[in-house]
Amino acid sequence: MERIKGYLLSEKCMRLVNIVFLLAFVVSNPFVSFFAGLLWLLFLYYSLKRIESFAVKAVYSVFGLMALLMIILSIISIF
């Protein structure tokens, strides 16, 4: 579990999140959008634990809400 947390906080994970988002916009598949939102939410969650600035936490929280909305819309479009 610690390896996963370490990876989620690394620069490689940020690149992976960006690539998955680009893929989600290009492919337009609800499963890819769901995976992108879930990966983004996990990345933001572990980043929020590490950051001390209130302003950055507020921005990341808004991004987390956007990721939740993306996940919910993906689930709706799957069913």
Low-confidence stretches: none
Measured by DSSP, the beta-strand proportion falls in under 5%
Q: Give the beta-strand count.
A: 0
| Dominant shape | globular
Integer average pLDDT: 82
Listing every helix as H and every strand as E from the N terminus to the C terminus, the arrangement reads HHHH
Rg: 13 Å
Structural class: mainly alpha
Helix content estimate: over 70%
Q: How many distinct helices?
A: 4
| Oligomerization | single chain
Largest sheet: none
How far is the N terminus from the C terminus?
Answer: 31 Å
Task: Write a compact overview of the structure shown.
The chain has four helices and no strands. It is mainly α.
Task: Explain this structure.
The longest helix is centred in the last third of the chain and has 25 residues, at 54-78. Helices cover 89% and strands 0% of the residues. It is built from 4 helices and no strands. The radius of gyration is 13 Å and the shape is globular.
List the keywords.
79 residues; mainly alpha; single chain; globular; 4 helices
Helix and strand topology:
Layout: H1 2-8, H2 11-27, H3 30-50, H4 54-78
Helix pairs in contact: 2-3, 3-4
